[in-house]
Specification:
Layout (H helix, E strand, L loop, with lengths): L6 H17 L2 H8 L7 H11 L17 H13 L6 H15 L2 H13 L4 E4 L5 H4 L19 E5 L5 E11 L6 E8 L6 E8 L5 E6 L8 E13 L8 H37 L1 E2 L2 E2 L4 H28 L6 H23 L10 H15 L2 H11 L11
Parallel strand pairs: 1-4, 2-4
Antiparallel strand pairs: 2-3, 3-7, 4-5, 5-7, 6-7, 8-9
Helix pairs in contact: 1-4, 4-8, 4-9, 5-6, 5-8, 8-9, 8-10, 8-11, 9-10, 10-11, 10-12
Protein backbone atom coordinates (compact mmCIF):
# COMPACT_ATOMS: atom_id res chain seq x y z
CA UNK A 1 0.00 0.00 0.00
CA UNK A 2 1.29 3.46 -0.98
CA UNK A 3 0.36 5.74 1.93
CA UNK A 4 0.85 8.94 -0.06
CA UNK A 5 -1.95 10.60 -2.03
CA UNK A 6 -1.79 11.40 -5.72
CA UNK A 7 -1.91 14.95 -7.02
CA UNK A 8 -5.46 14.30 -8.25
CA UNK A 9 -6.59 13.09 -4.81
CA UNK A 10 -5.04 16.11 -3.10
CA UNK A 11 -6.78 18.38 -5.60
CA UNK A 12 -10.16 16.77 -4.88
CA UNK A 13 -9.73 17.38 -1.17
CA UNK A 14 -8.46 20.94 -1.57
CA UNK A 15 -11.16 22.03 -4.02
CA UNK A 16 -13.94 20.45 -1.99
CA UNK A 17 -12.73 22.00 1.26
CA UNK A 18 -12.56 25.46 -0.32
CA UNK A 19 -16.08 25.14 -1.70
CA UNK A 20 -17.55 23.94 1.60
CA UNK A 21 -15.77 26.68 3.57
CA UNK A 22 -17.57 29.22 1.40
CA UNK A 23 -20.95 27.51 1.11
CA UNK A 24 -21.42 25.46 4.29
CA UNK A 25 -20.71 27.63 7.29
CA UNK A 26 -22.64 27.41 10.55
CA UNK A 27 -25.49 29.67 9.41
CA UNK A 28 -25.81 27.97 6.03
CA UNK A 29 -25.82 24.54 7.71
CA UNK A 30 -28.61 25.44 10.12
CA UNK A 31 -30.66 27.02 7.35
CA UNK A 32 -30.27 23.97 5.13
CA UNK A 33 -31.40 21.40 7.72
CA UNK A 34 -34.58 23.41 8.36
CA UNK A 35 -35.67 23.29 4.72
CA UNK A 36 -38.20 20.66 3.59
CA UNK A 37 -35.47 18.79 1.69
CA UNK A 38 -33.08 18.84 4.64
CA UNK A 39 -30.20 20.09 2.48
CA UNK A 40 -29.30 22.98 0.19
CA UNK A 41 -30.16 21.99 -3.41
CA UNK A 42 -27.89 24.76 -4.74
CA UNK A 43 -24.92 23.36 -2.83
CA UNK A 44 -25.70 19.85 -4.09
CA UNK A 45 -25.78 21.17 -7.66
CA UNK A 46 -22.42 22.86 -7.12
CA UNK A 47 -20.91 19.67 -5.70
CA UNK A 48 -22.18 17.73 -8.70
CA UNK A 49 -21.39 20.17 -11.50
CA UNK A 50 -18.11 21.64 -10.26
CA UNK A 51 -16.62 18.55 -8.64
CA UNK A 52 -18.60 15.61 -10.00
CA UNK A 53 -18.96 14.34 -6.42
CA UNK A 54 -21.99 12.01 -6.86
CA UNK A 55 -20.35 10.36 -9.87
CA UNK A 56 -16.85 10.20 -8.45
CA UNK A 57 -16.80 6.39 -8.18
CA UNK A 58 -19.06 5.67 -11.17
CA UNK A 59 -17.61 4.49 -14.52
CA UNK A 60 -17.06 7.06 -17.23
CA UNK A 61 -19.37 4.99 -19.45
CA UNK A 62 -22.30 6.22 -17.36
CA UNK A 63 -21.15 9.81 -16.98
CA UNK A 64 -19.06 9.28 -13.87
CA UNK A 65 -15.49 10.33 -13.13
CA UNK A 66 -14.19 6.76 -13.03
CA UNK A 67 -12.31 7.04 -9.73
CA UNK A 68 -12.12 4.43 -6.98
CA UNK A 69 -13.73 4.23 -3.56
CA UNK A 70 -10.64 5.96 -2.14
CA UNK A 71 -11.49 9.22 -3.90
CA UNK A 72 -15.10 8.95 -2.75
CA UNK A 73 -13.90 8.39 0.83
CA UNK A 74 -11.63 11.45 0.63
CA UNK A 75 -14.59 13.49 -0.59
CA UNK A 76 -16.72 12.19 2.28
CA UNK A 77 -13.97 13.13 4.74
CA UNK A 78 -14.31 16.76 3.67
CA UNK A 79 -18.12 16.76 3.80
CA UNK A 80 -17.81 15.21 7.27
CA UNK A 81 -15.57 18.06 8.43
CA UNK A 82 -18.39 20.53 7.79
CA UNK A 83 -21.28 18.14 8.60
CA UNK A 84 -22.53 19.09 5.16
CA UNK A 85 -26.13 17.90 4.76
CA UNK A 86 -26.43 16.42 1.27
CA UNK A 87 -27.81 13.34 -0.54
CA UNK A 88 -24.24 12.05 -1.05
CA UNK A 89 -24.44 9.11 1.36
CA UNK A 90 -27.88 7.92 0.33
CA UNK A 91 -27.38 8.50 -3.41
CA UNK A 92 -23.74 7.87 -4.26
CA UNK A 93 -22.68 5.50 -1.48
CA UNK A 94 -25.74 3.30 -0.88
CA UNK A 95 -27.99 3.46 -3.96
CA UNK A 96 -25.74 4.01 -7.00
CA UNK A 97 -23.48 0.95 -6.42
CA UNK A 98 -26.56 -1.29 -6.24
CA UNK A 99 -27.94 0.07 -9.52
CA UNK A 100 -24.52 -0.47 -11.09
CA UNK A 101 -24.20 -4.02 -9.76
CA UNK A 102 -27.76 -5.31 -10.21
CA UNK A 103 -29.39 -3.14 -12.85
CA UNK A 104 -29.95 -4.12 -16.44
CA UNK A 105 -28.06 -2.19 -19.10
CA UNK A 106 -31.23 -0.23 -19.81
CA UNK A 107 -31.66 0.67 -16.13
CA UNK A 108 -28.03 1.69 -15.78
CA UNK A 109 -28.12 3.87 -18.88
CA UNK A 110 -31.35 5.50 -17.71
CA UNK A 111 -30.39 6.18 -14.10
CA UNK A 112 -26.63 6.36 -13.54
CA UNK A 113 -25.85 9.35 -15.82
CA UNK A 114 -28.53 11.37 -14.00
CA UNK A 115 -27.13 10.31 -10.62
CA UNK A 116 -23.62 11.26 -11.71
CA UNK A 117 -24.85 14.66 -12.90
CA UNK A 118 -26.62 15.32 -9.61
CA UNK A 119 -30.02 15.64 -11.28
CA UNK A 120 -31.36 12.44 -9.69
CA UNK A 121 -31.20 11.66 -5.98
CA UNK A 122 -31.86 8.18 -4.63
CA UNK A 123 -32.32 6.40 -1.32
CA UNK A 124 -32.07 2.82 -0.11
CA UNK A 125 -35.25 1.82 1.73
CA UNK A 126 -34.14 -0.72 4.30
CA UNK A 127 -35.56 -0.63 7.85
CA UNK A 128 -33.21 1.63 9.78
CA UNK A 129 -32.87 -0.76 12.69
CA UNK A 130 -31.70 -3.47 10.28
CA UNK A 131 -29.51 -1.38 8.01
CA UNK A 132 -26.22 -2.69 9.40
CA UNK A 133 -27.46 -6.28 9.13
CA UNK A 134 -28.57 -5.73 5.54
CA UNK A 135 -25.10 -4.35 4.79
CA UNK A 136 -23.48 -7.30 6.67
CA UNK A 137 -21.72 -5.06 9.16
CA UNK A 138 -23.10 -6.37 12.45
CA UNK A 139 -24.46 -9.76 11.44
CA UNK A 140 -25.01 -12.19 8.57
CA UNK A 141 -27.36 -11.02 5.86
CA UNK A 142 -29.96 -13.74 5.44
CA UNK A 143 -32.76 -11.42 4.42
CA UNK A 144 -34.92 -11.96 7.52
CA UNK A 145 -34.65 -8.25 8.34
CA UNK A 146 -36.95 -7.36 5.44
CA UNK A 147 -39.90 -9.31 6.89
CA UNK A 148 -41.40 -12.42 5.41
CA UNK A 149 -44.94 -13.57 4.74
CA UNK A 150 -47.11 -11.55 7.11
CA UNK A 151 -44.27 -10.65 9.47
CA UNK A 152 -44.09 -7.03 8.40
CA UNK A 153 -41.58 -5.14 6.28
CA UNK A 154 -42.42 -4.69 2.61
CA UNK A 155 -44.09 -7.42 0.57
CA UNK A 156 -43.84 -7.69 -3.21
CA UNK A 157 -46.20 -9.54 -5.52
CA UNK A 158 -46.11 -9.93 -9.25
CA UNK A 159 -49.32 -9.06 -11.07
CA UNK A 160 -49.33 -10.93 -14.37
CA UNK A 161 -47.35 -9.11 -17.03
CA UNK A 162 -48.06 -5.67 -15.56
CA UNK A 163 -45.11 -5.73 -13.17
CA UNK A 164 -44.76 -5.72 -9.40
CA UNK A 165 -46.75 -4.15 -6.60
CA UNK A 166 -45.37 -3.31 -3.15
CA UNK A 167 -47.16 -3.07 0.17
CA UNK A 168 -45.69 -2.28 3.58
CA UNK A 169 -43.80 0.27 5.61
CA UNK A 170 -40.15 1.22 6.13
CA UNK A 171 -38.89 3.67 8.75
CA UNK A 172 -35.61 5.54 9.21
CA UNK A 173 -34.83 5.80 5.49
CA UNK A 174 -31.97 8.24 4.90
CA UNK A 175 -33.20 11.08 2.64
CA UNK A 176 -36.30 9.02 1.96
CA UNK A 177 -38.57 12.07 2.13
CA UNK A 178 -36.84 13.92 -0.70
CA UNK A 179 -35.18 11.27 -2.92
CA UNK A 180 -36.57 11.13 -6.45
CA UNK A 181 -35.81 7.42 -6.72
CA UNK A 182 -36.23 4.76 -4.05
CA UNK A 183 -34.53 1.37 -3.96
CA UNK A 184 -36.91 -0.65 -1.84
CA UNK A 185 -35.93 -4.00 -0.34
CA UNK A 186 -38.95 -6.30 -0.26
CA UNK A 187 -39.83 -9.95 0.25
CA UNK A 188 -41.42 -11.93 -2.54
CA UNK A 189 -42.52 -15.52 -3.08
CA UNK A 190 -44.31 -16.22 0.17
CA UNK A 191 -43.16 -19.03 2.46
CA UNK A 192 -42.34 -21.55 -0.26
CA UNK A 193 -39.93 -19.40 -2.25
CA UNK A 194 -39.21 -16.50 0.05
CA UNK A 195 -36.48 -14.18 -1.20
CA UNK A 196 -35.43 -10.57 -0.79
CA UNK A 197 -35.37 -8.42 -3.92
CA UNK A 198 -34.69 -4.76 -4.69
CA UNK A 199 -37.22 -2.64 -6.54
CA UNK A 200 -37.15 0.79 -8.16
CA UNK A 201 -39.94 3.11 -7.03
CA UNK A 202 -40.46 6.67 -8.26
CA UNK A 203 -40.57 9.26 -5.51
CA UNK A 204 -43.95 10.50 -6.75
CA UNK A 205 -45.49 7.05 -7.28
CA UNK A 206 -49.19 6.69 -6.59
CA UNK A 207 -49.86 5.09 -3.22
CA UNK A 208 -46.49 6.13 -1.76
CA UNK A 209 -46.68 8.20 1.43
CA UNK A 210 -43.46 9.79 2.74
CA UNK A 211 -43.15 11.51 6.10
CA UNK A 212 -39.99 13.15 7.35
CA UNK A 213 -39.13 11.97 10.84
CA UNK A 214 -37.52 13.91 13.65
CA UNK A 215 -34.00 12.53 13.96
CA UNK A 216 -31.34 13.01 16.60
CA UNK A 217 -28.91 14.29 13.97
CA UNK A 218 -30.71 16.89 11.87
CA UNK A 219 -27.92 16.77 9.27
CA UNK A 220 -28.99 13.17 8.50
CA UNK A 221 -32.68 13.58 7.58
CA UNK A 222 -34.74 10.40 7.72
CA UNK A 223 -38.23 9.44 6.62
CA UNK A 224 -40.94 6.86 7.09
CA UNK A 225 -42.26 5.34 3.87
CA UNK A 226 -45.70 3.78 3.52
CA UNK A 227 -46.28 1.78 0.35
CA UNK A 228 -49.92 1.09 -0.38
CA UNK A 229 -50.07 -1.12 -3.44
CA UNK A 230 -47.33 0.89 -5.18
CA UNK A 231 -46.15 0.06 -8.70
CA UNK A 232 -42.49 -0.96 -8.77
CA UNK A 233 -39.84 -2.07 -11.24
CA UNK A 234 -37.60 -4.99 -10.37
CA UNK A 235 -33.94 -3.95 -10.20
CA UNK A 236 -32.25 -6.36 -12.58
CA UNK A 237 -33.36 -8.73 -15.30
CA UNK A 238 -34.78 -11.53 -13.14
CA UNK A 239 -35.72 -12.33 -9.56
CA UNK A 240 -32.65 -14.41 -8.75
CA UNK A 241 -31.52 -13.68 -5.16
CA UNK A 242 -28.42 -11.61 -5.89
CA UNK A 243 -29.67 -8.60 -3.92
CA UNK A 244 -28.36 -9.87 -0.58
CA UNK A 245 -24.91 -10.53 -2.01
CA UNK A 246 -24.67 -7.06 -3.53
CA UNK A 247 -26.00 -5.40 -0.39
CA UNK A 248 -23.18 -7.10 1.49
CA UNK A 249 -20.59 -5.91 -1.03
CA UNK A 250 -21.98 -2.39 -0.88
CA UNK A 251 -21.84 -2.51 2.90
CA UNK A 252 -18.06 -2.74 3.08
CA UNK A 253 -17.60 0.21 0.72
CA UNK A 254 -20.21 2.21 2.60
CA UNK A 255 -18.45 1.45 5.91
CA UNK A 256 -15.11 2.66 4.56
CA UNK A 257 -16.67 5.88 3.23
CA UNK A 258 -18.57 6.43 6.48
CA UNK A 259 -15.36 5.87 8.43
CA UNK A 260 -13.63 8.59 6.42
CA UNK A 261 -16.59 10.92 6.93
CA UNK A 262 -16.53 10.31 10.69
CA UNK A 263 -12.78 10.93 10.76
CA UNK A 264 -13.29 14.26 9.01
CA UNK A 265 -15.89 15.28 11.60
CA UNK A 266 -13.65 14.14 14.49
CA UNK A 267 -10.66 16.01 13.08
CA UNK A 268 -12.69 19.20 12.78
CA UNK A 269 -14.18 18.84 16.28
CA UNK A 270 -10.68 18.46 17.71
CA UNK A 271 -9.37 21.38 15.68
CA UNK A 272 -12.13 23.68 16.93
CA UNK A 273 -11.53 22.58 20.53
CA UNK A 274 -7.80 23.29 20.28
CA UNK A 275 -8.54 26.76 18.91
CA UNK A 276 -10.92 27.45 21.75
CA UNK A 277 -8.65 26.33 24.63
CA UNK A 278 -5.96 28.65 23.30
CA UNK A 279 -8.36 31.59 23.70
CA UNK A 280 -10.35 30.77 26.84
CA UNK A 281 -8.62 32.03 29.99
CA UNK A 282 -8.92 30.83 33.56
CA UNK A 283 -6.82 31.98 36.53
CA UNK A 284 -5.15 34.49 34.24
CA UNK A 285 -3.92 32.05 31.61
CA UNK A 286 -5.25 30.12 28.63
CA UNK A 287 -6.70 26.77 29.72
CA UNK A 288 -4.84 25.14 26.85
CA UNK A 289 -1.62 25.72 28.80
CA UNK A 290 -2.76 23.42 31.63
CA UNK A 291 -1.10 20.03 31.54
CA UNK A 292 -4.35 18.14 32.18
CA UNK A 293 -5.98 19.76 29.15
CA UNK A 294 -2.93 19.05 27.00
CA UNK A 295 -3.00 15.38 27.96
CA UNK A 296 -6.69 15.03 27.20
CA UNK A 297 -6.34 16.61 23.78
CA UNK A 298 -3.20 14.59 23.03
CA UNK A 299 -5.15 11.40 23.71
CA UNK A 300 -7.91 12.54 21.35
CA UNK A 301 -5.34 13.43 18.68
CA UNK A 302 -3.77 9.97 18.82
CA UNK A 303 -7.20 8.33 18.59
CA UNK A 304 -8.24 10.46 15.62
CA UNK A 305 -4.99 9.81 13.75
CA UNK A 306 -5.29 6.06 14.32
CA UNK A 307 -8.87 6.13 13.05
CA UNK A 308 -7.78 8.15 10.02
CA UNK A 309 -5.15 5.54 9.13
CA UNK A 310 -7.72 2.77 9.50
CA UNK A 311 -10.21 4.61 7.29
CA UNK A 312 -7.64 5.23 4.55
CA UNK A 313 -6.56 1.60 4.65
CA UNK A 314 -10.15 0.38 4.45
CA UNK A 315 -10.80 2.52 1.38
CA UNK A 316 -7.63 1.24 -0.28
CA UNK A 317 -8.43 -2.37 0.67
CA UNK A 318 -11.74 -2.35 -1.24
CA UNK A 319 -9.90 -2.63 -4.54
CA UNK A 320 -7.69 -5.39 -3.17
CA UNK A 321 -10.34 -7.82 -2.02
CA UNK A 322 -9.92 -7.21 1.71
CA UNK A 323 -13.02 -6.54 3.80
CA UNK A 324 -12.09 -4.30 6.75
CA UNK A 325 -14.64 -1.51 6.45
CA UNK A 326 -16.56 -2.52 9.56
CA UNK A 327 -13.49 -2.38 11.79
CA UNK A 328 -12.46 0.99 10.37
CA UNK A 329 -15.98 2.31 10.93
CA UNK A 330 -15.95 1.14 14.55
CA UNK A 331 -12.67 2.93 15.21
CA UNK A 332 -13.82 6.10 13.45
CA UNK A 333 -17.16 6.26 15.28
CA UNK A 334 -15.38 5.81 18.60
CA UNK A 335 -12.90 8.58 17.74
CA UNK A 336 -15.71 10.92 16.72
CA UNK A 337 -17.64 10.24 19.91
CA UNK A 338 -14.52 10.95 22.01
CA UNK A 339 -13.53 14.09 20.09
CA UNK A 340 -17.07 15.50 20.20
CA UNK A 341 -17.51 14.68 23.89
CA UNK A 342 -14.20 16.23 24.90
CA UNK A 343 -15.05 19.23 22.74
CA UNK A 344 -18.24 19.89 24.67
CA UNK A 345 -16.48 19.43 28.02
CA UNK A 346 -13.57 21.74 27.22
CA UNK A 347 -15.82 24.41 25.72
CA UNK A 348 -17.43 24.67 29.14
CA UNK A 349 -20.90 26.21 29.43
CA UNK A 350 -20.96 27.49 25.84
CA UNK A 351 -20.47 23.94 24.56
CA UNK A 352 -23.86 22.89 25.93
CA UNK A 353 -25.83 25.66 24.23
CA UNK A 354 -27.93 25.30 21.11
CA UNK A 355 -26.16 28.27 19.53
CA UNK A 356 -22.75 26.57 19.47
CA UNK A 357 -21.87 23.94 16.89
CA UNK A 358 -20.25 21.54 19.36
CA UNK A 359 -23.53 19.73 19.94
CA UNK A 360 -23.93 19.11 16.20
CA UNK A 361 -20.77 17.02 16.15
CA UNK A 362 -21.86 15.12 19.25
CA UNK A 363 -25.25 14.39 17.67
CA UNK A 364 -23.54 13.21 14.48
CA UNK A 365 -21.47 10.79 16.59
CA UNK A 366 -24.49 9.48 18.49
CA UNK A 367 -26.73 9.35 15.41
CA UNK A 368 -24.22 7.49 13.28
CA UNK A 369 -23.66 4.92 15.98
CA UNK A 370 -27.40 4.33 16.23
CA UNK A 371 -27.72 3.91 12.46
CA UNK A 372 -24.50 2.08 11.60
CA UNK A 373 -23.32 0.56 14.87
CA UNK A 374 -23.03 0.22 17.73
CA UNK A 375 -19.26 0.05 17.91
CA UNK A 376 -19.11 -3.11 20.00
CA UNK A 377 -21.33 -5.00 17.53
CA UNK A 378 -19.24 -3.88 14.56
CA UNK A 379 -16.13 -5.23 16.29
CA UNK A 380 -17.83 -8.39 17.52
CA UNK A 381 -18.97 -9.37 14.04
CA UNK A 382 -15.53 -8.63 12.58
CA UNK A 383 -13.96 -10.80 15.29
CA UNK A 384 -16.45 -13.56 14.54
CA UNK A 385 -15.59 -13.43 10.85
CA UNK A 386 -11.89 -13.67 11.68
CA UNK A 387 -12.54 -16.63 14.07
CA UNK A 388 -10.62 -14.83 16.80
CA UNK A 389 -12.38 -16.43 19.74
CA UNK A 390 -12.87 -19.94 18.45
CA UNK A 391 -11.33 -22.62 20.64
CA UNK A 392 -8.80 -24.77 18.84
CA UNK A 393 -7.00 -27.89 19.90
CA UNK A 394 -3.26 -27.50 20.15
CA UNK A 395 -1.18 -30.61 19.66
CA UNK A 396 2.32 -30.76 21.01
Amino acid sequence: MDASFTAEQDEIRRTLRELLQKRCGSNELRTAVDTPAGHDPALWTALAQQLGLPGLALPETYGGVGCSATELALGAEETGRFLAPSPLLATAVLAAPLVLALGTETQRARLLPRIAAGSLTAALAVPGTALTTALTLTGPNGGEWAGGGRAGGVQARQVGDSGWRLYGQVAQVLDGHSAELLLVAAHAGGFARSRTLLFLVAGDAEGLVRVRQTSLDATRPQARLELRDVAAELLGADDSPHALRELSATGDTAAAVLAAEAVGAADRALERTVQYVKQREQFGRAIGSFQAVKHRLADVYVQVQAAKSAAYYAAWAIGNGERVGGLALAQALEALRTAAGEGIQLHGGIGFTWEHDAHLYFKRAAGDELLFGPVHRLRAYAAEGAHLFESREVTV
